[in-house]
Amino acid sequence: MKPFLKITLFMALLGLAGCKEDFIDVTNPGALSTNNYPGTVTDLEQLLTGVYGTQHTPGLFGHNIYGKGFYMWDHTTDLSWQGTPTWIQLGQNNSQPNDGFLSETWRDTWKGVQRANTLLVNIEKYRPKATLESDKVAIDLMKGQALFLRAWYYQYLITIWGEAFIINGQGGDKMGVPIITEASTSLDQTQVERATVKQVWDFIISDLKSAETLLAGKTWTGANDKHKISGWAVKAALGKAYVYTQDWNNAKTSLADVINNSGKSLVAFDVYKNMFNGKNEFNSESLLEMNLNVDLTARGNTETSMGSSIGMVLAPTYVGDNNLPAASAWSNVFPHAKNLARFGFNEGHYFKPGTTQPLATNVDPAYITRSVQARQNKTVDPRLWVSCWQPYVDSMVVNGKKRPISHFLDISEMDMEAWSFRKYLSIDATETELNMANGNNILLLRLADVYLLYAETLTHTGDNATALEYINKVKRRAYGYPVNAASPVDYKSLTDATKAPDAVLKADPLKYERWAELFGEGHWWIDVRRWQLGPQEAAYYQRIRGGTIQWEATDYAQPIPIDEINSNVKMKQNPGY
């Protein structure tokens, strides 16, 4: 892990750079003003750091985006905490326009757009001053990164709040989000109507193509630069955007280029299983990582932190000294029990029949034996234990001491499979010990995702055999076999049986592998949207602890926050809210 520069100063700079000159009265000739800033390439680098830093603001990967966003919509999670009605409603497909979590995600994603726009404006303002060839190269590289990051923020906006996806040529005329390309300097400039879905995706792809040109062949090897956008990250993101818009021919070209020419490769399973836990960062599979660092001075749910507090919500629970579950941080959510069966886990329940208290002494020894055998024999998908900690079989470290994982805290239903999350949690200390500012890097783009997107593309461009091979490459790694050779676990066809018992995944290796491989990484909800799986998923998961999971056709798009509706007179709400 590498320190991520604190961004407090940069936020102030961004705000200043976006203001009109008559908004400020500069009396100190040495102070920053719109007349003398930016004055150097270093000034632009400071602004770029702020654009990157916005990725882990509280509404995004600093806190909300998983346990209070994607995990709720796609039913990755269930709620232990029952004290926030709107949080429960997120998990019931009944999001509300007044939901504070959604409002924060909306706010911080737009903050990323605004900061990218501010940097782009100031790059062009500074360009005439750049006389050194090295400065000209540097500002073009910064422009490429800024364009990529603006597209990245916009992709979250359109996939969360866009009224529809483009499916079979339909949906492009539905409401997207506003397209804003300048740094707003007045209230009037914030009154922007929603562009269409197609216009937004065209804008995203245009930014990515421009970034592709500016960052062509660029890789970053310096210790303080590895988190920066490479040329291959741009190509992978562009390929994904083409898949999301069903532009299969362009998707095939971009993704094949990454696969064949980037030099990237899937890591071995022993590396893979811990690469979400602060280990093996920037490895051969990684195309883009959000670089984080443990911050003992500021919690991850504050913008000044170098870490993330995603883990404080997901934090596991363990067996305390009294043999009862104990929280390792907030410990609000746990994996939805229906997910275990999808991984093929059918070993029964950890407590003995008739158990009324979640005491470690009530665990069935036969269950432990069966579970260990299933893991060793790989009769259950091994990725279950990459994604989750198993109660009374797995352990975590608490204040330097190994403690068994427990039945999740505050789950009174003794027959419920209440495991704990593992991805993006510390494996060497509790989130509380880390000031709830976890330093585990977030993998935003990795090769396994690209392989599966490429396989999907090939099914639409007439090459099912090669598509099946790329699906099998991902599965082979999960089971510890060499990636590029046939294995005993290979699927025999694109409709072969998977580990899942449900109609959506049981005979669809492509969908199953995207679900299992990328579980807990925030991709599945987007897949649910573009594949129109909402009603089937609601029917499979049935309920969360707060109530029944409902489904309406309008539930794919989240509601525009009420504050935005009230402040932007041109903003229209999504249907159904």
Q: Describe it for me?
A:
49% of the residues are buried. The protein has helices at 8-17, 41-53, 66-73, 85-91, 100-126, 133-161, 197-214, 231-244, 248-261, 269-272, 310-314, 338-342, 365-377, 383-387, 447-459, 464-478, 509-517, 524-531, 534-541, 562-567; strands spanning 77-79, 286-290, 317-319, 325-327, 333-335, 388-389, 395-398, 401-404, 420-421, 442-446, 543-544, 547-548. Helices cover 40% and strands 7% of the residues. The strands form six sheets. Strands 1-5 form a two-stranded antiparallel ribbon. Mean pLDDT is 94; it is low at 1-26. The protein starts with 7 loop residues before the first helix and ends in a 10-residue tail after the last helix. The radius of gyration is 24 Å and the shape is globular. The longest helix has 29 residues, at 133-161. It is mainly α. It has a domain at 310-440. Helix 1 packs across helix 2, helix 2 (41-53) packs antiparallel against helix 5 and helix 15 runs antiparallel to helix 17 (509-517). Strand 3 and strand 4 (325-327) form a beta hairpin. The protein contains 20 helices and twelve strands. This is RagB/SusD family nutrient uptake outer membrane protein. Residues 323-577 form the RagB/SusD domain. Belongs to the SusD family.
